[in-house]
Write a structure and sequence with these properties.
Layout (H helix, E strand, L loop, with lengths): L2 E8 L11 H4 L5 E5 L7 H13 L3 E5 L17 H21 L4 E4 L3 H9 L1 H14 L4 E5 L3 H8 L3 E7 L23 H14 L1 E3 L5 E3 L4 E3 L7 H14 L3 E2 L8
Parallel strand pairs: 1-2, 1-9, 1-10, 2-3, 3-4, 4-5, 5-6, 6-9
Antiparallel strand pairs: 7-8
Helix pairs in contact: 3-5, 4-5, 5-6, 7-8
Amino acid sequence: MQRVDLNSDLGESFGRYKLGLDEEVMKYITSANVACGWHAGDPMVMRKTVKLAKELNVAVGAHPGYPDLLGFGRRYMDITREEARNYVLYQIGALYAFVKAEGLELQHVKPHGALYNALVKDEELARGILEGIADFDRNLIFVGLSMSKPLEIAEEMGLKVAHEVFADRAYNPDGTLVSRRKPGAVIHDKELIAERVISMVKDGGVKAINGEWVELKADTICVHGDNPQAVEITAYIRRRLEEEGVKVVPMREFIR
């Protein structure tokens, strides 16, 4: 039976500001990418999110980003390879404190926002991030953009990798995501989203924004928890996948 992981970026509230529908979305996913305090999240939110994941038997991963609370980590920053390495190591360590306190194990690391997109085209940045992950624990799974160069580099370094696809985002012909600043970058129709997800999982690709076919590998599917329809869409994707005979499980169950 084909297996796939369903993940979402959670724990992105901060102080008195609430973002996302974590309590509801968490019921339908198998892995949670938890913000580590630099683009979003704080100690109270991190602890609460990890506890919720434990209660619902959802695997936990670190979601490190640029030090950019005001811009939600979606603004690009010029940082060195060494800075990237230490920024990521610092954030993994912060989240791990709460993971350990709850008696859990950390499953993966998925960079956030602009950092996630930047490392696809910046090999030095990618190597710095991967070195930070390896410094902490070589058994952690690195989650990156499907079929991208950083995943190749990670495998060369002996790290485990998960190819990630996005349920509600449009793709460019080169396999990168269409910028959120462009029309059509985010898809809201749940039927279309489900059909695209099934295509990525079962057919190994999807149509790009210009109609061209893009080859993709889908180990894990990201659904965004800050979408107003997040709960409905996530539940629907999971149901459709299971109807197609795809087993939805945490990535650690099939990535070795």
